[in-house]
Amino acid sequence: MTKSDVVELSVVVPVYNEVDNVSEFLRRVVPILVENVPTYEVIFAVDPSSDGTETVITTAHNLNSNVKMIKFSRRFGQPTATLAGLEFCAGSAALVMDVDLQDPPELIPKLLEKWREGFAVVYAKRRHRHGETWLKKLTSKIGYGVIDKFGDVKIPRDTGDFRLLDRIVIDELKRFPESHGFLRGLVALVGYSQTEVVFDRPARHSGKGHYNRFFGSFKIGFNGIIGFSSALLNLSTVLGFVAAIASFLIGASYVTLQLFGQRFPIGNPTIVAVILFVGGLQMICLGIIGQYIGRIYDEVKQRPRYIVAQFLGISRKS
After folding, report:
1. What is the rounded distance in angstroms from the CA atom of residue 314 to the CA atom of residue 286?
2. Rounded to a whole number, what is the distance in angstroms from the first to the last CA of the chain?
3. Is the pLDDT of residue 92 over 80?
4. Tell me: the pLDDT tens digits for 37-82?
5. Cα→Cα distances 199→31, 32, 94, 160, 194, Å
C-alpha cells in the first residue's frame, strides 16, 4: 500500500432498511470528513434490505469511491454487522456510527482531537437521550448497572457503539473469535488509554429504527452480562439457597407448632404455592445455566459470525 493509499479514518455504519437516512447521513458526514482528515472511507455494513437501501449506497459509491459497502447473505444483526465493518476497514482509526443521525456527525472533530492527543479509544457519552421511550431508557439503565456491578470489565455508562478506535485496538478486536460480539465489552476488555466526549443524543432523522430497540437492546445487554460476568450463575446459586432455607423454615415452623399443640395452616393452596415457588426457582436456574451452555455450544461449533454476499469498493483480502 502506497502512502497515498493510506486511509486515516474509516467510518463504519451498520445498516438495515434505512433508505430514508443514507443520503442525509452522507450529506452531513462527508464534508466534515473532507475538512478534518486527509483520507477517509465510509463503510456501510448492510443486512439485506427490502427498501432499496443497497441501491442508494451503490449510487453514492458511483459518485464517491470513498463510500463502500459490505452486504451480508442474510440478516446477522447490528452487533455482527459492526464487527464485520471493523474487520474490513483500512483506516488508521475507525469511527462506529448509526446511520439515523442520532450519533451527530458534528461530534467527529472532537473525537478526532482526543484521538490525536494520544487516546486509543474515544467514546461518546450521552448526556440526554431524546426520542427514546422510558422503557428503553430503563432497560439501558438496569443493564449498565448490572454489568457495572458484576462485570469483569468496567463499561462506561450511557455509552453506545458510537466511538473512535485506534488501529491498535481494531487489530486486537480481530483476535476475538466470539460468536456473540459485544463491542462495548470487547473494547473495555482490550484496554489501552480511553476517554470520553459528552453529547446530547438527538432523535432519529427519519423513520423508526428497524433494529428492535427494546428486545435488540435487551439481547445486547444480556450478551454483555453473560459474556463478561458470572453474575447470573451466582444468582442461581443464591436462589437455590433461598429456596432451601425457605423450605427449612416452613418445615421447622410446622414441627414447632405441632409440638405446642397448634394446627399448622396447611392445605392444597399452601402445597401448590410452595411447589410453584420451588419449581419456578428451578426453572429460572435451569434457564440461566442453559444460556451459558448455549453460548459454549455456539463457540465450539466455530461457525463464521457472518457471510458476505457482496463487497463494493472493498477487497475481500482486507
Report:
1. 45
2. 12
3. yes
4. 899 999 999 888 888 888 889 988 999 989 999 988 888 888 888 8
5. 20, 17, 19, 12, 17
251-307, pLDDT tens digit by residue? Answer: 677 667 667 766 666 665 566 667 767 777 777 777 777 777 777 776 777 777 888
Distance CA 143, CA 166 (A): 27
Nearest to 98 by CA among 61, 129, 119: 129
Which residues pair with residue 68 across a beta bridge?
43
How far apart, in whole angstroms, are the C-alpha atoms of residue 182 and residue 158? 15
Give me 32's grid cell: 466534515
Report CA-CA distances (Å) from 306 to 25, 43, 73, 80, 258: 25, 16, 8, 7, 65
CA atoms within a 13 Å half-sphere pointing along the CA-CB vector of 235? 15
Contact indicator for 278, 247 with CB cutoff of 8 Å: yes
Q: Are 225 and 150 in contact (CB under 8 A)?
A: yes
223 vs 217: CA distance, rounded Å: 10
C-alpha closest to that of 21 among 165, 181, 202, 164: 202
Q: Which three cell numbers stand for residue 221?
A: 445487554
DSSP 97: -
Residue-wise pLDDT tens digits, 15-30: 988 888 888 889 988 9
Q: Which three cell numbers stand for residue 236?
A: 442461581
Q: Taking the CA atoms of 306, 312, 313 and 317 in sequence, report the sign of the dihedral they define.
A: positive
Joined grid coordinates for residue 257:
407448632
